[in-house]
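User: My collaborator sent over this chain with a note saying "see what the structure looks like." That's all I know about it. Can you take a look?
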Amino acid sequence: MTDATTERAPLGRRERKKAATRQALADAALRLFLERGYDQVGIRDIAEAADVSTTTLFKHFPGKEALVFDEDAELEAALIAAVRERPEGTSIPAALRDYVRRSRRVKGGDAGVSFTRFVELVENTPELREYERRMWMRHETALARAIAEEIGAPADDPTCRALAHFALETRYLPGGSADADTAIACAFELLERGWSAAAQNARG
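Assistant: Without extra context I'll predict from the sequence alone. Here is the result:
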């Protein structure tokens, strides 16, 4: 664990413009998907709504599904930071619980879409549901390694891999329910109880 925070250098003008275009595309896509339904919206519709060409859209996103999950590139870094930069005295499960809760608050940048509406869109669209699960779970290995590093366990320790796996899975446990925080808290309480003893064994 470390108390240091990573400071990011200010973005240059070109980078700011690219980031703004990317966000505009993501916001337009999410808005149109919620208004019309995912299958009723095409790439051209999204590009026109964001006032860019389809060529520009594909420079930022490989396809329709990726437009809904525009924060994928930052996800792995954020998960690892949640572990490494957690406050003094905070357990790893507690830090991941807080991150999962934060990740469910609001979706959509300037679109300001509630997480409940976002979850409903994803859960009702097979392509998005599968894409999101693949997106989250492919970061499992990096998260498990960060956990192992924090406790001084081997990089491939199965206990650390299990915590990473189940912590990521908790994001899907509540669906879009209004009582999501309670469901997440219950899941992490179970993880917390098992983690303390398991971590001792993993350290050897």
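A starting point for your reply to your collaborator: Residues 1-7 have pLDDT under 50 and may be disordered.
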